[in-house]
Fold:
Amino acid sequence: MRIKGFKIKKSTMESVEKKVKIFAIPFAGGSKYSYRVLHDYVPSHFSWETIELPGRGARIHENLLMDINKTADDVFNQIRHRINGQDYIIYGHSMGTLLGYELTKRILQAGLNPPVSLFFTGRGAPGVREEIKISGFGREAFWKEIKDLGGLPEEILQNEEMKDFFEPFLRADFKAVEDYEYQPMEKPFPIPLFVRIGSDELVYWKDALKWQNETQYELNLKALPGDHFFIFQYPEYIIMQIVESYTIAKELNSKVLEIDDVQTI
Structure:
């Protein structure tokens, strides 16, 4: 299935003179391999890096973190020395949106080079609390919720050993999201923010609209067909939207530079 009106603009590629970094932050239970389907569509002028979180993948021997702020500290420490003098985008899906939000706060508070744009998918604004807290569910109920969310292949859902392997990561991450305490910035981010949600997932439009509170720019919000993991249904389209967010953000930023103070567009 194709997204209606999907076009790759030549101007996007022509306007990028050197590689732009995309720092991708995983969703609950994810690792640095979680976005490999999207990674395959990244244009040559962009460089994709999925952040590896503690306790999984290459960091399997480290302790899992069950706190969004501690995990955001970890991500910040991974990239803080690599972002000055570098154009980059922060991307996150679901739990990754909260980590991306907290990461951006840390970057701004440290006075470091901010991302050109933020691109978040699959979650309402950070101030929206989780209605269902599944991290403490019994095994059968827990895995029913995971199955309903989608995203995991059937061979994992039907394999008890594989479920044993993934369950600690998933429970730790859901616990982190459920216990997250929203602390807004004194001022909204001076960074253009792009949000995409699935039309059939449990993210309400009104909750996604609240991302407007986190940016000084007009929120760029769209709903795409699909469930919570709609990003894997249209990987090429999602990547081109991320790439396009860079071009749009650069244009907005150039307009801001023409006036004395940053203002809400």
User: Anything to note?
Assistant: The longest strand covers residues 20-25.
